[in-house]
Amino acid sequence: MTLFQNEENDSxxxxxxxxxxxxxxxxxxxxxxxSPEYQEDLKLIIDYFGVSAGQALILVxxxxxKILNKRNLxxxxxxxxxxxxxxxxxxIIRDINKLCVMGIxxxxxxxxxxFEGFQLSQRAFKSVLTATPFKxxxxxxxxxxxSVLEDFHNSYxxxxxxxxxxxxxxxxxxxxxxxxxxxxxxMFIRDIGLPExxxxxxxxxxxxxILRDSDGINVERIINNFFSVQKRxxxxxxxxxxxxxxxxxxxxxxETGWYKSVESMSLSDQAIGYLLGEEFQKKEKKKLKRGxxxxxxxxxxxxxYYNPSEEKEIDRFKKLLQQDGYDxxxxxxxxxxxxxxxxVLLFGKPGTGKTSTVMELAAQTGRKIYxxxxxxxxxxxxxxxxxxxxxxxxxxxxxxxxxxxxxxLLLNECDxxxxxxxxxxxxxxxxxxxxxxxxxxxxxxxxxxxxxxxMNEPNFDEAFDRRFLFKIKLSAPEHSTRVNILKNNFPExxxxxxxxxxxxxxxxGAQINNIRKKFFIQNMLDPGLQLSDCIMDLCEKEFVLSxxxxxxxIGFRL
Length: 558
Known about the structure:
By secondary structure, this protein is of the alpha/beta class. Helix content is 54%, strand content 9%. The strands form three sheets. The chain has a seven-stranded mixed beta sheet with strand order 5-6-8-9-10-7-11. A two-stranded antiparallel sheet has the order 1-2. β1 and β2 (115-120) form a beta hairpin. The protein is globular. The chain starts with 6 loop residues before the first helix and ends in a 14-residue tail after the last helix.
């Protein structure tokens, strides 16, 4: 049995081999790799990833865990799975680290920087799901800043695991930069000429910014990972005073806030300009201070089904947001002496397609989306929330001034921000929330551009009623709409089965999509599984978890 002849079946063949090996190898010795009955399945993994037989056996458990979405693996899970001696554990650790260097596995740490274990890398997992052979960097010419940062991260993790010392990490990093200096962004790093201490700090910050998408990076923690107490104090002092080369050369900057702190820093605008120019485009989004600018060029459009009355309103908006229609509306509003902003409130139960509707409208009318999760606006200190809200509208105004087509401002999950003002309470919390509501009302009153807000329940302050020009309720799909959604997701099911499912389970579009994903995963693990045999069970489980179902209460009723 060989791979890469019929790509449609390759992913299934690999998953079947993994499932057989995971079961057959439980409690066995590592020498099973030499047994004929294991050879055919192991060869699939060896060919797929270009690894040794021992490494292929290790990958069995990592692939198995990743598909089942289990927690990261630590070494003792492998020793529990198979019968291994102490000296074999040492060899397993070496193979795992080799697989990390190859980019097949990666080490994970939690938000507190504690080691959590290993897992299959996203690149390797994508290779499994898309039935494409895994390519190491040495086998492809597609080297870029991302692949260089992945290599640096692997070496950095080896340093943090005490496998290499500081000097070795610096030498590896220096060689990595020199050998990839034909890449424009890497050339920029090389030509700065940073000393070894600052170079490694800078590389960690770049990695955290680009690959982990982090803001407010704790540089003090990075320094603590590298240096002794005396060196730490010296470096932190020089950064705070502004006479460190990372500050002098405008590579790092302090995050805006009440005070400057090495616990919250980021790449400077200059560094971002040099490093994120080309890579930024590949990530298909632009990270701003308070929200994210989504570029919809390569957005994969999806067919959304609405109830008849809602579909008419959505179609009307689609015409309005086409450039000619939008320009005409703005012109008419100006002539009438009215504010030229178009404000829309979408409300309805979770899973009815509020956010997806805005995404589709943007994609179909060629507009970008400045998306803000409203829960991130609320700050911990007095005045923070108001400052954040002002900053959002300032950033959106800047986008209106600089983008050829006005992007859409999407204020997602606005329930907390649109709530009614409290008139019977004078607590600091109520005063703060009332101030926020008043400020938001003012911003909407004077807003320009296209603003969509989404919320679950229309329990908003009455003053918002006239601030939103349009208010659209997206209800749970009616029977006929639900039938269309089910047919679109499960075309292989017969009409009577579709009708029965729609009548029995009043599911939303999001829930039906979840069922489709669950079946896809189950079918990978059990290739003989028929959709018609398990669809009722999947719908039942999804329905029980939904708000549409009267679940038995837990506890006592009074």
